[in-house]
Amino acid sequence: MVRMAATASLCIIVGVLHPLATESSKTAAVIECSRTEVGLTCTADEPAAALRMAMPYHGITLTLAAELVSVIIAFSVVAYSEGSVQAGLRRLLSRKAILQLLPVGAVYGLGDFLQTQATNAASAPVVLVVGQTKLLLSAVLSKLVLQQNEPTNWLGLITISAAAIASTDISANGAAARGLEVYGASLAFAKAFLSSSGAVLSESLYKSGDGDFWVVSFRVQLLMLMTTLSLLPITSGDMSLLFSPTEFFTGGPTVCQKFDAQMICDPGSMPFATCSCTDRSGWDIMTVFAVLAIVANGVTTGLTLQILSAVSKAVCNSLSACVLYIAYVLYGFRPFNLAQAMVLLIVSIGSFEYASEKAKRKTMKQKPAQSEGWEKGYP
Fold this sequence. Notes:
This protein is of the alpha+beta class. The chain is globular, with a radius of gyration of 23 Å. Helix 1 crosses helix 6. The strands form 2 sheets. Strands 1, 2, 3 and 6 form a 4-stranded antiparallel beta sheet that branches. A two-stranded antiparallel ribbon has the order 4-5. It starts with a helix and ends in a 13-residue tail after the last helix. The protein has one domain. About 65% of the residues lie in helices and about 5% in strands.
C-alpha cells in the first residue's frame, strides 16, 4: 500500500512539473505584423504581457533529445546490472521483444510529439485537462483489449470527461487567440487517445515476467526515438537537424528583423497581408529543464504502469490538473478564472471517487470468504 501511494504521489508531482516545464520553455515572444492601406503595424509595441509566447526551438528537437536521454539512461542501468556493455546489449536487443513493443513505441512516440505541439499552440492547463479524457478512453480500451469484465462506472467517467471538455472551452473563451487554443486542444485529444492506447497495450508487458522495468523501458524508448526520427522529414522538412548541431540547438521559428529599433517581419506589399515572427530562437536553460521533465515523465509512466494500472495513472493525471492550475496562476501565466477552477475541482473529485470505488471493488474481489462453521479449520 505504501509503495502504491508513493508511486501515485510521484505520478502527480511529475504530472505537474512536466507540463509546467514545457510551458516555461516558451520563452520567445510572437510578434505579428499586418500591412494595411495606412501602413505597417506590429504588436511589438504592445506590453510584453500581451504578447503570445512560443517555443523558440524546433518542437521535434525537444522530443528527440528527451527520448535519446531516456534510451541512454535505461541502457546504462541494464548494462551495469548485467556487468558489461556486451551482456546488456544481448539482453536488450531481442528482435521478438522489440517487435512485440513496436505498436507501443509508435503510439507513445507520436503522442509525445503531439503534446509538445499542443503545448506550443495552447496553454498547459488546456492540454492537461483535455488529456483527462483518457480516463474514459483507458477504461474503454481496457475493456476491449484486456478483456476486463469488472464493473465500470461509465456514467461517472462520461461526467469527468464532459467536465474536462467544459474547462477547456472556458479557457479558450478567455484566450486572445481562440483558434490556437482549440487547435492545441485537438492535438491534446489525439495525444490522449494515443497515450491511452499505449498505456493499455503496455500495462501487461510492464507487469509480465519477460523482462524488468529498465529492459522494457529501453525498448519502448528506442522505438519512440525511431518513430520521432521518421517524423523528422514531415514535421521539420529538414533532415539536416540530425547532422547540424548548430541548427539543432540554435534553430527554430523565424526571427524578426530589426528596423529602426523595432522588431518586425515583412508581410509583403499586398494590403491586408499578415506575418508573424519571434524575438529570438534556439535552446536556453528552460529548454534543458523541459527535456529533463519529459524524461522524468517517461520513467514515471513506466513505474506507474508496473505498480498500478493504466486507469490509476489517468486518475493521478486528473489530480495533477488542479495542482497545475494553481501553480500556473501563481507563476503568472494567466489570471485566475473561478469557473475553470470549479470545473477542475469537479474533475478531480469525480476522479478520486471513481478511483476509490474501483479500489474498493478490487479489494472485495481479492478478499477471501470467511468461514463461520467447522470447515474453517481445513484448507
